[in-house]
Each structure stands twice: as structure tokens, then as C-alpha cells.
Specification:
Blueprint (H helix, E strand, L loop, with lengths): L12 H23 L6 H26 L7 H18 L4 H26 L6 H21 L10 E2 L8 H23 L2 H11 L1 H5 L5 H27 L1 E2 L6 H14 L5 H17 L6 H16 L5 H11 L3 H5 L4 E5 L13 E10 L2 E7 L2 E2 L3 E6 L6 H9 L6 E6 L2 E2 L5 H7 L1 E3 L12 H8 L1 H4 L9 E5 H10 L14 H14 L4 E5 L7 H16 L4 E5 L3 H7 L2 E6 L2 E7 H5 L2 H7 L9
Parallel strand pairs: 3-11, 7-13, 7-14, 10-12, 12-13
Antiparallel strand pairs: 1-2, 4-5, 4-6, 4-8, 8-9, 14-15
Helix pairs in contact: 1-6, 2-6, 2-9, 2-10, 2-11, 3-4, 3-5, 3-9, 4-5, 4-9, 6-9, 10-11, 17-20, 19-20
Length: 603
């Protein structure tokens, strides 16, 4: 059966329902924004205009932190960049329609450029989440220092005021600020409810597994940071144009921290929660901070601690449980049943005459400790090559060095004739490597169907503002799902699966990437005898029927003997022996290794 290249229609039931919900919500909000100025006093309108711009900024914090898991303190810096772009151009260069539009474009471009730089510094392959938070923490501090150092040009610590702007009526600014908030929130909701939104949640839950599915995690984070920076700069520009005053505090660390508080109190990972939380807290603060200037800060801090400890999901999810009965939110509506389609894979990697996998003088050192020392192996197509050895022999380290170019200390790894260099896991996956882990490595809150869609991201992509409910899988992956019963549990969250089903799902996800070389690290660990037998049948079929080259790490020597074509024995990081199943099983040298006797290995 030929590959079915058709895609699910953008107007699928899931997408239509999400868009309809967002359209209704935006329409209701627009009516409120349009009529509210005629019911409010000037002071309240003034406060709400400011709150609308800050709420748009808080929405970006929620997309980064709540959905993607990037704890950022730096969104205030982009707000400040937008505000100062407006003030500096109007003060030092000129004002008018051309200058106003030009300064707005400058604000967006400057924010995008800074966001790219911050993303490049914070999200390189291997960077820890803590490092990214530290980089974003430094951003507003550096920006404020630059403003201080700017002297008269930036107004230093006094800021800039009374620069030319459009002195429109409060109602007009109310509509502008409210319209901006509605527009960016609607786009944000469409984004997080789309295929791409599913990808953001996957990155938050298991960044490592995403990388080993071929998903460019660092690039996605950088692009997301750039988009969030542009939205934040737009909000800051509007705020400066309305207030006619800018100060270093607009881009400072304090505002960045307050945005995190607003997001946590409103409900992290809900999008609408941080928006409503920001508006509510900012308006309340404006009324109470005058009479309770110090006590109000204490109240806010205590509320933040209480919510984090007792209600880590924030306040909005609690209210949402009641509202959801009356009006289904997009998140609830979007998790429809996934439809599977199958196709017969045609692996382009198999067209090369080179060995699917070859290592030459592979080394891995940790200081003076040699974990791998001169490993040279070669796998063949349609072959199941087992790698055995006692604990500490370097088996899992070998898998890491093959699947991640940055892991090895020396030597070369060739996948389908191409040297992987220092490539990240996602680039190695693109060459034809698929890897499962010693411990199941999945996405706990995503369903089986959603996990399978993620596995197809490198090949099928992901829409920014629509959501598919259909996924095409190669027949080997479908076979795994049918054998484990997962084809009838596509709507089940992975945390509710049995251990055997989790193992089966992980293997199906790896096969969905259409690898030519399959790296399996103890795939039968924790399985029953019946489950091990089923997995063994699947693996032999993958090698002999579908032509995959499989490298298997396994401690169950009976299992290895039943399914392997060749066996490689590692001992103390060196290649001890390589041969057929009969040769290795009958070897006195191998028996000595497993009995714990000292063995000399060739260097």
C-alpha cells in the first residue's frame, strides 16, 4: 500500500469547534470593551487601559511558562523596549504618522532581535531550565542599566515624559488597548489549542523525548520567545503612547516578577486565567495601594504563596470546573478521538549501499574514567544485533553516543554513510536513528493518539492554528498498537497505561519516525513472559520483514539467543567479542565475564 499523503482537513470538527468557541468569546469580550467606557469613570478607564496592556504581556508569560515550561523573568524587558522605542523616537527624531508607525516597527524588530539573542544563549542543546531562567532574569537588569547609562538620551533614572503622542479620548485608547488584548489572546488560544500547542505541552513535560523524536526543541523555544517578545513590545509601545511617560521600571525585574505572580494566581496553563488575574490584581492594587501602600504588597505576596502551596493551578481552573458544564472550553473540546491511517513505509535511508550504522574507534571518557574505549561495530540491514555485557560495561553509554553527537569524547559514528559529527539528537534522528530508553520515556498528560501525532512531527509537521484528529502511521507502528491493544485506547492519557502498554507506545512512537536503525535499551524490562514473547516476535518481524537494522541491549540472554542474528559483548568499556549467537553463547570468555572472573581485554 502506497503512502497516503493526504492531510486532515483544516476544518476538522476539532478545529471548527475551537475556532467557534474563540470567536464567540472574542465577540463577547469586544462587546464589553466597546460599551464599558460609557459606564466607567475616568480613573477606572485609565487603570483598565494600563491593565489591558499588562494582561497582553502576562498572556505571553503563560504561553512560555504555563504551556512550554520556560520560567521567564524577562518579559518585562520587551515591554520596556516597546515603551522606550515610542518615547525615544518621538522625543529625539520626530512625530507624525510616519514616525509613529516607524517607531512601532522599530519596537517590534528590536524586541525580536533581543529575544533571538536571549533564546540563542538560553536554549542551546543541553542547557538546563535553570540556566534559561537565569538568562531571562539578567535581561531586565541589563536593560535597566543601559537606560541608566543613557543619560539625557534615555532620561536615565528619571525616564522620559511629555513627548509628542496622539492625545485621543480615553474611550479611544480603551478600545485600542482592549482590542489589542482580545486579538493577542484569541491568537494565543488558537495557538495552544492547535497541533503546535500540543507540541508545547510535550516540550514542557519531556524535552528529552521530544528531541529523540526529531523535534527541534531549541529552535521552537527561540521562535516562541521571539513571538512573545514582539507581543510584549507592542503592549509596551501602546502603554507609552497612552500614558506619555516612560521610566526604567517598565522594563525592570520587579515587573517581570509581578507577571509571574499574576500568571500563577490566575491559573498557569489556562491562558485566560493570567489575563483576568492581571486585570483584577492591577485594578485592585490601584484602588488599595494608595490607602494601604505597604500592606497591599504583603497581601499580594501572601496570596501568591497560598495559591502556590494550596492551589498550584491557580484560581481560574476552580471556577472553570463550574463554567465548563455550561460552556465547554477549547481544551476539553479538542481532545477528540484520533483516527489512525496506515501506509507501507518506504525508508529512503535504505537506498544507500553503506552499512546503516558504523562506529570507528568510539571513545567516551569522564575525566580519567574510560567508559567506552575504541568501540568499532557495524550493523547490517535486516539484522538484529544484540549488545550484551555485565552492568557497567558501557552499553547504554554506547547508545547515547550513537544517538547524540555531543556525547562521545572521540571517534566517529556513521548513520547510512553520513558522519553525525556533533549533531543534536534531532539531527541524528533525521539521518535515520530511532531510540527507546531503558525507562519508559513518554508524555504523562497527553493521550496515546496525541503522542503518536507528536512522533510524526518531523515528517508531517504541525499546524499553528488548527488541530488534526487523524494520523498516518507506518504499518510496523500500527502492528505494535494492535498487538498491545493501544489502537483501542487512543484517548487514554499515557499515565493511565500499564507498564507493558507504555513500552509498546514508546516503540510505536519510535517506529512512527520511520527509522532505518532502531536502538532499543532493554525493551522487555519489567514485562511478563507473554509480553516478552510478543515483543520478540515484533522485533524479528521489524528486522526480517521490514528491513530495519536493530541494536538491542538486553540482560535476558535467553531472549537474546532466541531473536538475535549476531551478538556483541562489551566488558569494561571495550569490545570483548563479536560473533554469531552460537559462538558467543558457547564462549568460555563470555561465561567468565558473567561469572565475575577477571578478563583481559584488548586495548
Amino acid at each position: 500500500m502506497a503512502r497516503d499523503t493526504s492531510e486532515a482537513a483544516p476544518g476538522s470538527s476539532v478545529t471548527r469547534r475551537v475556532r467557534r468557541t474563540v470567536l464567540i468569546g472574542a465577540a463577547v469580550a469586544a462587546v464589553v470593551v466597546a460599551t464599558a467606557p460609557f459606564q466607567l469613570d475616568i480613573y477606572t478607564k485609565n487603570i483598565l487601559i494600563r491593565a489591558f496592556f499588562l494582561a497582553a504581556l502576562a498572556m505571553t508569560v503563560d504561553v512560555l511558562w504555563g504551556y512550554t515550561g520556560i520560567l521567564t523573568f524577562g518579559q518585562s524587558a520587551f515591554f520596556g523596549i516597546g515603551a522606550y522605542a515610542c518615547a525615544l523616537v518621538a522625543t529625539h527624531y520626530g512625530f507624525g504618522p510616519f514616525w509613529f508607525a516607524g517607531s512601532f516597527l522599530l519596537a517590534l524588530l528590536a524586541a525580536v532581535a533581543v529575544a533571538w539573542l536571549i533564546g540563542w544563549l538560553a536554549f542551546y542543546h543541553g542547557a538546563s531550565p535553570l540556566y534559561a531562567s537565569i538568562v531571562t532574569l539578567a535581561l531586565p537588569i541589563v536593560l535597566v542599566q543601559l537606560i541608566f547609562a543613557g543619560g539625557r538620551f534615555t532620561g536615565s533614572s528619571s525616564g522620559i515624559s511629555a513627548f509628542p503622542t496622539y492625545y485621543w479620548a480615553f474611550e479611544t485608547w480603551f478600545w485600542i488597548a482592549g482590542g489589542y488584548l482580545i486579538a493577542v489572546t484569541a491568537l494565543g488560544y488558537l495557538l495552544v489549542s492547535s497541533d503546535f500547542g500540543r507540541l508545547l505541552v510535550a516540550i514542557r513535560e519531556n524535552e528529552e523525548r521530544c528531541a529523540y523524536l526529531g523535534i527541534p526543541v531549541s529552535r521552537i523555544k527561540i521562535l516562541l520567545m521571539m513571538a512573545a517578545g514582539a507581543i510584549g513590545a507592542g503592549a509596551g509601545f501602546g502603554y507609552a503612547a497612552f500614558t506619555n511617560v516612560v521610566a526604567p521600571e517598565l522594563g525592570g525585574f520587579l515587573l517581570g516578577t509581578e507577571l509571574l505572580i499574576f500568571t500563577a494566581l490566575g491559573g498557569r496553563g489556562t491562558l485566560i486565567g493570567p489575563v483576568l488575574g492581571t486585570i483584577g490584581i492591577d485594578v485592585t492594587a490601584s484602588y488599595l495601594s494608595g490607602s494601604l501602600p505597604f500592606l497591599w504588597k504583603l497581601i499580594t505576596g501572601v496570596a501568591f504563596v497560598v495559591v502556590i502551596v494550596l492551589l498550584p493551578q491557580g484560581l481560574i481552573p476552580i471556577l472553570g470546573k463550574g463554567l465548563r458544564r455550561l460552556w465547554p472550553f477549547p481544551r476539553a473540546a479538542a481532545r477528540d478521538a484520533v483516527v489512525l491511517r496506515g501506509f507501507e513505509p518506504t525508508t529512503p535511508h535504505g537506498e544507500t549501499r553503506s552499512a546503516p550504522l558504523r562506529t570507528a574507534d568510539l571513545l567516551r571518557h569522564y575525566g580519567s574514567l574510560k567508559v567506552l574505549d575504541g568501540i568499532a561495530i557495524e550493523s547490517r540491514g535486516s539484522e538484529l544485533l544484540s549488545i550484551v555485557g555485565p552492568n557497567g560495561a558501557g552499553k547504554t553509554t554506547l547508545m547515547r553516543c550513537i544517538s547524540d553527537g555531543g556525547e562521545r569524547s572521540g571517534g566517529e559514528v556513521y548513520v547510512n554513510g553520513t558522519e553525525i559529527g556533533r549533531g543534536s539528537p534531532q539531527s541524528v534522528v533525521a539521518l535515520g536513528i530511532g531510540r527507546s530508553f531503558q525507562n519508559t520515556n513518554l508524555f504523562e498528560t497527553l493521550t496515546v493518539g496525541e503522542c503518536l501525532m507528536l512522533a510524526r512531527w518531523r515528517i508531517d509537521g504541525a499546524s499553528l492554528f488548527s488541530r488534526r484528529n487523524e494520523v498516518a502511521l507506518p504499518t510496523p507502528a500500527l502492528g505494535i498498537l494492535e498487538a498491545t491493544g493501544l489502537d483501542k485506547a487512543l484517548g487514554t492519557e499515557t499515565r493511565n497505561l500499564s507498564h507493558g502498554q507504555k513500552r509498546g507506545l514508546e516503540l510505536a512512537m519510535v517506529l512512527a519516525t520511520e527509522p532505518s536503525v532502531l536502538l532499543l535499551d532493554e525493551p522487555t524490562a519489567g514485562l511478563t513472559k507473554a509480553e516478552r514473547t510478543a515483543i520478540g516476535s515484533v522485533l524479528t518481524s521489524l528486522a526480517r520483514v521490514h528491513g530495519l537494522s536493530i541494536l538491542l541491549i538486553e540482560h535476558d540472554l535467553d531472549f537474546v539467543r532466541d531473536i538475535s542474528d549476531r551478538i556483541v559483548v562489551l566488558h569494561q568499556g571495550a569490545l570483548l567479542m563479536e560473533g554469531t549467537v552460537e559462538e558467543v553463547i558457547a564462549s568460555d570468555l563470555v561465561k567468565a565475564v558473567y561469572s565475575g572472573q577477571a578478563v583481559e581485554t584488548a586495548s
